[in-house]
Predict the 3D structure of the following.
Amino acid sequence: MKAIDEIRIELNNEWIPDVYESEVRPLRTRSYPLNAPQRENAPSILNTLLGTELQVGRRRIQCPDIATARFLQVFARLGCREVAVPYDITKIAGLADKLETAWKAAQRSIEQVGKGASPQQKGRIRASVIRAMREEVDKIGAGEMMPLFNKGTKQRGS
């Protein structure tokens, strides 16, 4: 059995693409371009005088709040180019918690599967798991840049 399959089975509901597909995509979302390099990154959240920023490499991304920065940080770690961000800001903090928990579980799983392997093999396992997660998130998609809001109003009656 390949390392990716072992890790995916071990993580079960905490596989990041599964959390993304089941909890983020069903919500009303907008597409958000991260444009992070397609590799594992080490993003950091900065609190500046201009507000909260997510730094990925040399690039800084303005975020409206820390919850959104934490949400985007998980996908920036994976190297995703574009993700779906929920419009409802009250749900972002809970989703960020779930995604960060899933990320930590994935790290523990990678370490456990790579136990006894050489540093090069551990690096290959880690890179392949991150690549698999990134490809699955990309396949699920980020949705439309500006989705339609087909909600009736009292004035229009429709």
About this structure: The chain is about 50% helix and 15% strand. The first helix runs from residue 3 to 11.
